[in-house]
Design goal:
The structure is a single chain. The chain is mostly beta strands. Helix content is about 5%, strand content about 40%. The chain has one helix at about 15-20; strands spanning about 1-5, 25-30, 35-40, 50-55, 60-65, 80-85. The strands form 2 sheets. It has a 4-stranded antiparallel beta sheet, with no helix packed on it. A two-stranded antiparallel ribbon has the order 1-4.
């Protein structure tokens, strides 16, 4: 396992946060086609995310987001992919 600090480049708008049910940030990674969600401390989706997480050595990308999507819903979820830089 390795510890990675993830920091969002943006966040959900406050109005979008309210429309989507006041969702917190989520984080996940994919290994062998299977998505695994990472436990992170609750953080409002309309605020920047910065936290440390532990992931397997083979992980090269972490997916983060706030809010939810759904058919017929007027919402503006926020999604971002963080590429983990290889340390030489």
């Amino acid at each position: 396992m390795k510890t990675i600090t993830i920091k969002s480049k943006g966040q959900q708008t406050n109005s979008g946060w309210n429309r989507t049910g006041c969702m917190n940030w989520w984080a996940a990674y994919k290994v062998d086609g299977s998505m695994t969600f990472i436990e992170i401390a609750p953080r409002r989706g309309d605020r920047q995310l910065e936290c440390a997480v532990e992931v397997p050595e083979c992980v090269t990308e972490i997916y983060i987001g706030a809010g939810k999507t759904g058919a017929g819903k007027s919402c503006d979820p926020y999604r971002e992919t963080i590429v983990i830089a290889e340390v030489a």
